[in-house]
Amino acid sequence: MFLTIGELSAQSGVRIETIRYYENIKLLPKPDRTSGKQRRYSDNDVKRLSFVRHARELGFEIDQIREILSVSGDHKASCQTVDTIARNHLAAVEERLASLKILRAELMRMLEHGGSGRIADCRVIEVLYDHGKCHAHRRDRSEKKLKKKVA
User: Could you give the residue range(s) of every CATH 1.10.1660.10 domain in the chain?
Assistant: First the structure.
């Protein structure tokens, strides 16, 4: 059974423009074409594209997905490469979560120390104009200085 690009899009949940992009960057193989040059896809293409979509939803980068796909065809191969990619991705996610917690705390601090309702006394504007008043900025600079001393 062969699918058109529209049917592939509907079954995989990936937009047609994105499918073409993935073909151009060789994340998806170029499809067979009819004599009229219409693309034809298989069930394997649906599976691969669904895999890519899910990996992207989980935040994996294109190069990471490409590497995972390259080893996934050998069912007897070690899973170590994939585990390493996933562990590195998890570490990056945890780092982003820590940054987001700091950002959340800073936004809450800015709002808690708000002004009296006048722009002249608005803490949000004050901190945005003067990055030195941002607690997250000061903490980040202190951590960088500490890392330089340790190194």
Answer: 5-60
